[in-house]
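Chapter review: from sequence to fold.
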Amino acid sequence: MKLLNANCSRTMSRTARVLIALALACALLGAGIASASDTGVEKEKPLIDWGQAYIEGTGMAVAPEGTTGAQAKALARRGALVDLQRNMLEFVCGVQIDSRTTMDDFMAEDMVRSEVHGLIRNVEMLKGEWDGECYTVTGRIKTEQLRQIVDLVVTLVR
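The token string follows.
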């Protein structure tokens, strides 16, 4: 009986690892199939271009109140870079959404929180535009780097 339990838990453990690897591969490589060049409209969400092997996205930010000139532009640019990285991370890893509703005197109050955890590296900046109020950046990450992550996960599962 002990041998049966050991084999069963080993099989379940391996099955669980394979399912996790498959889910990760689907999330990383199947998250989007549209090409950025196929649409003439700027998208908030990043898009995968399979032909050129990259994920491209945008980020936007405004300068904090009370800032002007070069300081406003620099802070807005930094905010746009962070927004770009967050958008790409959300696209690759997904977002966890938590919500809570409370009632007080028949008045509902909803609280929704989104959270993303992960690491994004080697985002290549393509362009940045400052219109005097808002900074917009466009960047990309090569899908080869994501494939290396999937290969590592599959190797660990084996």
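Two observations follow directly from the output. The longest helix spans residues 2-29. Helices lie at 2-29, 69-93, 143-157.
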